[in-house]
Hints:
Layout: E1 10-15, E2 23-28, H1 31-41, E3 46-51, H2 67-85, E4 86-97, H3 101-112, E5 117-124, E6 138-145, H4 148-153, E7 160-161, H5 165-178, H6 183-194, E8 210-211, E9 217-221, E10 224-225, E11 251-252, H7 256-264, E12 268-269, E13 279-283, E14 289-290, E15 295-297, H8 302-310, H9 323-333, E16 339-342, H10 349-361, E17 366-371, H11 377-385, H12 393-396, H13 400-414, E18 431-436
Parallel strand pairs: 2-17, 2-18, 3-4, 3-16, 5-15, 16-17
Antiparallel strand pairs: 1-18, 4-6, 5-6, 7-14, 8-9, 9-13, 10-11, 12-13
The site of S-adenosylmethionine has 15 residues, from strand 17.
Amino acid sequence: MFLASQPFPRTASIRRGDPAAPVHLVIEGDNLSVLERLVEFQPASVDLIYIDPPYNGTSRHLGYRDDHAEWEENLRARLVIARQLLTRLGVIVIAVDDSEIGRLRVLADAVFGNRNLLTTLIHQGDVNSGRRFTGGGVDYMVVYGRSKQSMMDADVRWREPKVGVDKILKAGAKAWAQSKGSADQATTLLRKWWTGRKYKFSGGLGEYTRVDEDGRVFRIGTLGVPAGRGSGRYDLLHPSTRRPVVPPPGDWVGPPRTLHAYVEQGRILFGPDETTTPWRKLFLDEQLDEVPVPTFNLSRSEGTKHLNRIFPGETRFAHPKDHRVLARWFRIMAGPDATILDFYAGSGTTAEAVMTLNAEDGGTRRAILITNNEVPAAKQKTLRAAGSEPGDDAWEAHGVFRSVCRPRLETIVTGVREDGSAYIGPVYSENVDFLRAP
Ligand SMILES: C[S@@+](CC[C@H](N)C(=O)[O-])C[C@H]1O[C@@H](n2cnc3c(N)ncnc32)[C@H](O)[C@@H]1O
């Protein structure tokens, strides 16, 4: 729920989505005044904020001691408002590199409170073998909650689908169908499928090689724990021979009540008779999600490659983020109907991440983007040399909002590039309004 009516005049709009679906807002203007207006309009209404602020101030006219102090003051003013925009369970993600992470942590601790730090994500990109000390290539995302305590009270837990589980479940279902209901035969078929594949799957997934009498894929685990740590030793009867089975070394993992429930639910794999120690069955369809690991390796060139598909043969924006990476973390950190704000939106990656997620899971997330229309430094030089200056049409046409963010989003929503050619990439049926802050 955000912005019943519009806070700024609309300059253009696209309606390609369900009329009932939310309208993404892309606001051209200076983020400080826009944030001030938004927070007045509707405080505590944003579920997730992602920002990738520029490092070091570019304007030098404010009389600060140095670039860092200026950077810090600029960002502080915006973070203070950002905090007021977050819902009680809201989260903010701040992208930052090695050179600013120390300062950013101090600043963000002051604004959000150190007790609200949730994590620091570490993105290891391409390594440069020519560097002096390490190969570098590390970027961070520092993540704070508006109130970590509220998140704990609400039992918020971040989870994501385990990669590859769907493939194994599909192979299991196929084996089960081919075996015509024989657990042994289905297991043989599933094991055949696993041959030469295990290295492609992470963690313990390669252990899920068995299919049970209900066609469910499972792995086995022990029913024992070290002596003194479980529920002691007692008799568990074999279901056919009705004699006590040989227990695992140590104690049973739980009291009789628990193990009897496991037997009832088909969660125990017995041998042919009581002389074989039984195992616990762990079903793959109950292990679909996992806790995300805060570090990941991924080439950082994808963002640029993707933008090249939208603007072929041109580099209109240096170092856009990878919308797939943002989509992954947005899905983990916020619900399918989240309002997601980026007030240093640049090329518009955050909106594309949101649209990607909505297309994948049918969500109704809404993006709110704010960006100025800054012209890249190199381009400014050539424009000035040609007699143009800020405010001129020729100058403004090269700004990030008009030459990158807006045409990018128009392209991915309409399937037609700025030059009229067809865009062969994922096209999203979404609604977008472009607004202009005065
Ligand atoms: C590091 S870039 C963000 C890139 C973005 N994450 C992407 O993937 O395209 C920072 C952007 O913030 C914009 N920006 C800087 N200061 C701003 C301000 N005061 N208000 C609005 N936008 C601003 C710049 O134009 C720049 O495009």
